[in-house]
Every structure is written in C-alpha cells, then in structure tokens.
Prior knowledge:
Elements: H1 3-11, H2 16-23, H3 30-39, H4 46-51, H5 58-63, E1 91-92, E2 98-104, H6 131-140, E3 146-151, H7 159-170, E4 177-181, H8 184-187, H9 194-200, E5 206-211, H10 220-231, E6 235-242, H11 250-262, E7 266-272, H12 286-296, E8 307-312, E9 317-320, E10 326-329, E11 333-337, E12 343-347, H13 380-383
Parallel strand pairs: 2-3, 3-4, 4-5, 5-6, 6-7, 7-8
Antiparallel strand pairs: 1-2, 8-9, 10-11, 11-12
Amino acid sequence: xxxxxxxxxxxxxxxxxxxxxxxxxxxxxxxxxxxxxxxxxxxxxxxxxxxxxxxxxxxxxxxxxxxxxxxxxxxxxxxxxxxxxxxxxxxxxxxxxxxxxxxxxxxxxxxxxxxxxxxxxxxxxxxxxxxxxxxxxxxxxxxxxxxxxxxxxxxxxxxxxxxxxxxxxxxxxxxxxxxxxxxxxxxxxxxxxxxxxxxxxxxxxxxxxxxxxxxxxxxxxxxxxxxxxxxxxxxxxxxxxxxxxxxxxxxxxxxxxxxxxxxxxxxxxxxxxxxxxxxxxxxxxxxxxxxxxxxxxxxxxxxxxxxxxxxxxxxxxxxxxxxxxxxxxxxxxxxxxxxxxxxxxxxxxxxxxxxxxxxxxxxxxxxxxxxxxxxxxxxxxxxx
Length: 384
C-alpha cells in the first residue's frame, strides 16, 4: 500500500458515527441523516477535515450531509442526461470532437453537490472491467480528438492503471488531447507523487482540470502538489461550482481566482450548480452568477475571470452566460457599457473597399491639415 493510500484509509472519516465523534452529536444527528447517507456515502480526507473551522462553514457545507438532501423539487437523477449519450459503458459522447470517459468509481472525498451521485461510489455503475469497449469506441470514431478522464476521480487509480489508460489512448492516432478531471489536489495532495509526475510526462499533452470552490482549499500542501504537476508539464485549469453558503459572493470568488493564479492554475469554468436531485439546496439564482462575473471582469485580471456556464439540464451541453454589456447594435454602431458602467460607442465598418484601384489615405496623413495632406489619389501599391 502506498503512503497516500494508507493516509486515505487510516485518516479519513467515512461514517456518520465518526462524524458525530469528531464534531459532536449536537452537530451530527446520526439517525436523522441516515437516509441521506444511504443515498450517497460520506468520506472526508484528513486534508478536508483539517480545513473545517466550524459547522456550517464553506468546507463543512460541501462535505457533511444534511436533511435538505432529502427534499426534491426540481432535481433530476441524471440531471445532464449523460446516460442517454452513452453509446457504450463508461463513455458519454455529446460534443462532436470529444468524449467523457469514466475511469474510476470513487473519490477521495465525496462532495454533497455531486452531479454523478447516482453513480459515484458504486463500482457496478462505473465498472473498471469494461474499458475495452470504451477504447474500441474511441478508436472507431476518428472525429474524437479529445478525451476527458473523469469518474469518480481518475487520480484514485494506481499509477500502473493510469499509465495503462494513457498508453491505450496514445495508441489511437486521432486522440490529440487527454484531460484529467480531478479534485485530488484539494482532497489528498499526497497522491501527486514524484513517480506519477515522472510517468505522466511520457504521454503529453495532458491537461488537468482541478476543482476548487474556496480559497481556503489552496493549502501549502495543495499548492506544492500543483507545483509538482506544473513542473511535470501538465496544463492546469480549474472548475468551480457556484454554491450557496460556500462561494456565492464576489469577494470570496475574487480571493479564489487570485489564489488559483498564484498557484499557476487558470480559472476555467464557473458552473451553475446542476439541477441534480439531492443537491438542490446548493443552488443560487442565475443572477447571482452574473453579478459575480460583473464584479470580476475589469476589476481583476482577465486571466482570473472564468467562463460562467450552465450545463444544460437534459443534455444540451454547456451554455456560457455573460452580464449585459451591449445596449444596442445597429448598422452603423454598437453602444455598450464597460465594467464601470460608462457608455461607449464603437463604429461599425463602412462598405468595404473591394477595388485595388480604390482611394487609400495613408494613416500618417489623416491627422494633417488640409493644406498638408498627401494627394488622395494613390493605389494600394504606391501607398505601401
């Protein structure tokens, strides 16, 4: 057993009774929470446990079950319609040139807002013995150039199994990009071992989309793990989910994106919480996400502003949303406001010049007085 596997096994909390022993029976009502636990298991790694400062704080809210999970109003079991777009086990093929490949059924810690809570934690629903049909499907579809490894968390697999997956994918000529969707750096940074970093360099280009929802998750150990990944040549991006009681505040979000950039991780997506049964209490209104983006754009580096998206319920894919900056568009001009709310006008181009013999006025002459202007008659050649 590796060091990271031993730490996961001996240091994690994976039962309601252990939660009550750690945080007190006044905070954890074991019997009341039993149905929520039965619907979706619990596990908090030592890293996550150490981040909880008090019940109800942003880390607690992400991992500790609540009876609110039992209230279902608009939630759906398969909120993104992934199963309908699954031609073979473990593959979702929704976009033309890329597929989602579920390679692991488990996570180091289980997020209560998980979109795939219908599957995650159940090896029968994300089977490890059905990779061959997935590889065969990818090989048979030359339009697939990008493969996203997800689960569960792919980094919960051993280096040996991960390398097997990398090797098989690199044998397929049309697969250009391999991406890993993982929250391991937030949950178990010890998993990013020197051995993994040495192995993965043989299969580039490989990207990793991390998942951080709050700046406090970027601990020194986590930042060190991200540094090891960067030095190993992985391109790092981040997915954040907009969650009530966790990060639904522009100041909190700004702190997060700044912390990510300092760790050399590019904020990539800010997701609306999915309309998934059991996690509806995390959802904010869409206007809250637009407000946060409005308070980021222009007030911090553009590199730190993620794409705000809704992953369409029922399988329509990701749709980007932006605050309203454009006031009007006409044939002649576009009127818009900037991040400070000031109004500006951009002139639309006039009828394009199509004749090589058309009049051209050199830029240097346009600011001269009429008496000093260069002759208007000039060909493109003579003006050059």
